Amino acid sequence: MIRRQGLRAVIAACCASAVFVAPALAGSEGPGAPGAGDAYFPGYGNGGYDVSHYDLQLRYQPADDHLQGTATIVATATQDLTAFNLDFALTAKSVRVNGVPAQFSQKGLELTVTPPSTLPQGEVATFVVEYEGTPSTADVDGFNPWVRTSDGALAIGQPEISSWWFPGNDHPRDKATYDVAVTVPDGTEAISNGVNTRNSSLAGWTTWNWRNTEPTATYLAFMTIGQYEISSKTGAFGQPFVTAYSDKLGPLAGPAKASIERTPEVVDFLTQLFGEYPFSAQGGVVPSEGLNFALENQTRPTYSHKFFQSASNVSVVVHENAHQWFGDSVSVDTWRDIWINEGFASYSEWLWSEAHGTGTAQELFDHYYNSHPADDPFWQVLPGDPGAENVFHDAVYDRGAMTLHALRSVVGDEVMLDITRTWAAEHRFSTGTIEKFIDLAEQKSGKQLDEVFNTWLFTKGKPAVNPAAGVAASAAREHVPTPPAVAEIDRAHEHLHDH
């Protein structure tokens, strides 16, 4: 067995390219860093300040994809700040800091602002940016996640989307609350996170106001505009349950609703596993075009219509709502930690299947273990350090789920629940790392778990049958029966990775 120092050495070797690079030290005077220090995506986020709230006043015209907006950002300087960056792809027209005009320049996704005077460390400041543009034409280095549709637009993406509709600090470490007001032509709907606080109409335009009161990562803030059937009901725990289905779903509307309308039931099930639901609203959105994946937008996941082409699909609803705990409430500290998000979301599908008699988690483990022969490139991607190019690789999802089942088989159900619930509670509205998760698992189990995590997260190749690493002998059977849940889970995963 590899001892603790052995596993840390493995992690260090695997992740040498993903070392966190800290921004300027707090208390030093100077410009904030133009990145948050994430080695997978060095340009994401910024240093020197911490955002607490975004107020977005937007006006969007579907006919020509023109967006204009005013973003008011409430932030605290974390150093004596002489200049700072905002991540932004559209054209800034003016910037004010604490009400005073500020100098600014733009290059790529960096909007660099020089305030009239240094912002002292600890000072709460407001940044007001007026802007406009055509998001669908705002390509940056050949990339553009904004989707223009026949009746509106989708501002939905991972790991980045916010820069194409509002300026901000685009990294999961800097979470904030949101007020989003979207003005669109009468007869057009606009949906975002949280709750719809009011709507108002004037001179042929309707303004939709949405409020999101829990800390949210920038990429999990979303906006959908178009022709939608919006419904607000009471969901689990008496919370608002808001859904939006495209008017153009046609025959897919039935299976989409048969899936998404079970969200309160799914959330209640997941609460029994993970502890208290972390947010104050629930829901789901299904557009009819432009989206090839599902994304766990906070309080309101969005699902491609493709998930419902052959039948209803509750597995994808389980997956995206599990992310409300793992990914949304507890987010990645750097994008190398993505395995925790996707492993838990995928394993939750197995647990749902186990609870509903369509295949135990062990049967599903055996199936996916045997679906990939030893020479399959699948086993060459390390979930614990997949690299920026493989952040959404199948191995991060499916081998990630196998990792959690292996851990469960070694520590037992009671300890596994304790690990899971403690992780969700202790890191609520914050971030977590792989190393912290491993430490917690060892603390709760009283076991050294090097062999489990080293085998599944940091070693290339198909793991051999080894109970100490969580691989039961049943996984090596020559003919493994296919659990009924596999068809639905596979349909869910067919599009989950297509970011």
UniProtKB/TrEMBL annotation:
**Residue ranges of every copy of the Peptidase M1 membrane alanine aminopeptidase domain listed in the record:** 309-456
Q: Which coenzymes or cofactors are required?
A: Zn(2+)
Q: Name one Pfam family in it.
A: Peptidase_M1
| One GO process term, biological-process aspect | proteolysis
Q: Which reaction does it catalyse?
A: Release of an N-terminal amino acid, Xaa-|-Yaa- from a peptide, amide or arylamide. Xaa is preferably Ala, but may be most amino acids including Pro (slow action). When a terminal hydrophobic residue is followed by a prolyl residue, the two may be released as an intact Xaa-Pro dipeptide
Q: Name one GO molecular function term.
A: zinc ion binding
Database matches in InterPro entries: Aminopeptidase_N-like_N, Aminopeptidase_N-like_N_sf, Peptidase_M1, Peptidase_M1_aminopeptidases, Peptidase_M1_dom, Peptidase_M4/M1_CTD_sf
Task: Give every Aminopeptidase N-like N-terminal domain span.
Answer: 52-220
Which N-terminal residues, if any, form the signal peptide?
A: 1-26
Asked if the record carries the keyword Protease, the reply is yes
The enzyme's E.C. designation: 3.4.11.2
Span-the-membrane segments of this chain are: none
What are the alphabetically sorted keywords of the record? Hydrolase, Metal-binding, Metalloprotease, Protease, Signal, Zinc
Family as reported in the entry's similarity comment: Belongs to the peptidase M1 family.
Task: Specify the protein name.
Answer: Aminopeptidase N
Source species, please?
Answer: Saccharopolyspora aridisoli
